[in-house]
């Protein structure tokens, strides 16, 4: 059984920082690419950042480049998303996902964690 659990969300003022965590269980985390997506109220879910299986390749959506950093620790079956210089536009539910990005995409998803940035 594949399970992903996000944590670290919350309420923060504009300009502040948060770090989200994603903990995996039930399988070998290191065989999958990992990504973060977010869904703002009334909007579609959108890609935020991704990281390759061994962590050597990261990619970011334009709105978060230079502010967010994705990382992973395969020894701990965990990944994270460090978010800095947050703005109200970053308010959303953030989801962790894993899968084979190049082939089947992201097959497994967490339940999401709410991030709210106040102005």
Question: What would you say this structure looks like, in words?
Answer:
The protein is mainly β and 119 residues long. It is built from no helices and eleven strands. Strands 2, 4, 5, 6, 9, 10 and 11 form a seven-stranded mixed β-sheet that branches. It has a four-stranded antiparallel β-sheet with strand order 1-3-8-7, with no helix packed on it. It starts with a strand and ends with a strand.
Short description:
This protein has no helices and eleven strands.
Name its key features.
55% strand; globular; seven-stranded mixed sheet; mainly beta; 119 residues; four-stranded antiparallel sheet
**SSE ordering:** EEEEEEEEEEE
% residues in beta strands: over 45%
Average pLDDT, rounded to a whole number, is 95
Largest sheet: 7 strands, mixed
- The tally of beta strands, per DSSP, is 11
Kindly report how far apart the N and C termini lie: 40 Å
Structural class based on helices, strands and sheet pairing: mainly beta
Distinct helical segment count:
0
- Stretches where pLDDT falls below 50 for ≥5 residues? none
Fraction of residues in helix? under 10%
Q: What is the alpha-carbon Rg in Å?
A: 13 Å
Molecular shape:
globular
Task: List the topology elements.
Elements: E1 3-7, E2 10-13, E3 18-25, E4 33-39, E5 45-51, E6 58-60, E7 68-73, E8 78-83, E9 92-100, E10 105-109, E11 113-118
Parallel strand pairs: 2-11
Antiparallel strand pairs: 1-3, 3-8, 4-5, 4-9, 5-6, 7-8, 9-10, 9-11
